[in-house]
Write a structure and sequence with these properties.
alpha/beta; twelve-stranded mixed β-sheet; globular; Rossmann fold
Length: about 280
């Protein structure tokens, strides 16, 4: 792996560029084998790690572990704005956000993949916009995920014989703690399928920058067990990390398939949300 430094955000175009970005989640800290490493600064500080850029099936791909290379950043301490800005800085227009997630419904089992189409934010205190003033820019977020990119992820998973749920609502909690049983029961009663700690504001900030964003959630556990089962046990961090690690090859293979299937040109409206700061 070679290393190249770029100018700070807003400066010159980095020496290596990409069109598709991938964020790494818990247990997923490297993706590209033959890649150039780009160290970036942004108007919001440094991203979680240098961005690595390489080829996947003829497509230029940028990879960034959202928690850092050694998972040194818990969900509530991630500099999401710097991570998203860095991806945009290297030319990315489509972003894939694989993540570890818990299931809230018995029908969504550990080992399944979910490509969510809706999001509920229960976080607090996170820097979640590029528009803190004096410039005002209000973005429609009724449909949080790019339908075009999400459809590619679903089709790729089905073609690979993977059990995938083509829609679902992810509720994003603050972390780093897991849910109480009462909270988990409340989320289930609302019909939410997936629980996670990093999808917000990551997915929203992508929209503010006019980037397509699709999540691919690997279900690692039932949040506090399956309702009604006497032996239900709550999730632990060790179990989440171990499960994701044991399924990392599945995640990587699916991402390679998704990258190869992404259309050359966008036909969605995600780019229309971009505001004046990102032009």
């Amino acid at each position: 792996m070679s290393t190249a430094a770029s100018a700070p955000g807003g400066g010159d175009v980095p020496p290596a560029t990409a069109e598709i970005g991938v964020f790494g989640g818990s247990g997923f800290y490297s993706f590209l084998d033959d890649a150039v490493e780009v160290t970036l600064d942004t108007p919001y500080g440094p991203p979680a790690a240098p961005v690595t850029i390489g080829d996947v099936g003829g497509r230029r791909v940028a990879f960034l572990p959202r928690h850092g290379r050694r998972h040194e950043l818990p969900p509530h301490r991630i500099n999401y704005r710097a991570n998203l800005w860095a991806m945009r800085e290297v030319g990315v227009t489509r972003l894939i956000g694989p993540c570890a997630a818990g299931s809230l419904q018995p029908a969504v089992a550990p080992g399944d993949f979910v490509v969510p189409d809706q999001l509920v934010d229960r976080t607090w205190g996170r820097a979640d916009t590029f528009y803190d003033g004096p410039v005002a820019h209000h973005v429609s977020y009724a449909d949080p995920y790019c339908a075009e990119l999400s459809a590619v992820a679903v089709a790729s998973a089905r073609a690979a014989g993977i059990t995938v749920h083509p829609s679902g609502t992810v509720i994003v909690i603050q972390g780093p703690r897991f849910s109480t049983r009462a909270e988990s029961r409340w989320y289930r009663s609302q019909g939410f399928e997936v629980i996670n700690m990093t999808q917000y504001p990551e997915a929203y900030l992508a929209r503010e920058l006019g980037l397509c964003y699709a999540a691919i959630a690997l279900i690692t556990d039932y949040d506090t067990g399956v309702e009604g089962e006497a032996e239900a046990e709550p999730v632990t961090q060790a179990e989440v990390f171990a499960f994701f690690k044991s399924n990392l090859d599945r995640v990587r293979a699916l991402l390679f398939d998704v990258v190869a299937a992404v259309p050359e040109k966008r036909s969605c409206a995600c780019g229309e949300a971009v505001g004046p700061l990102a032009h």
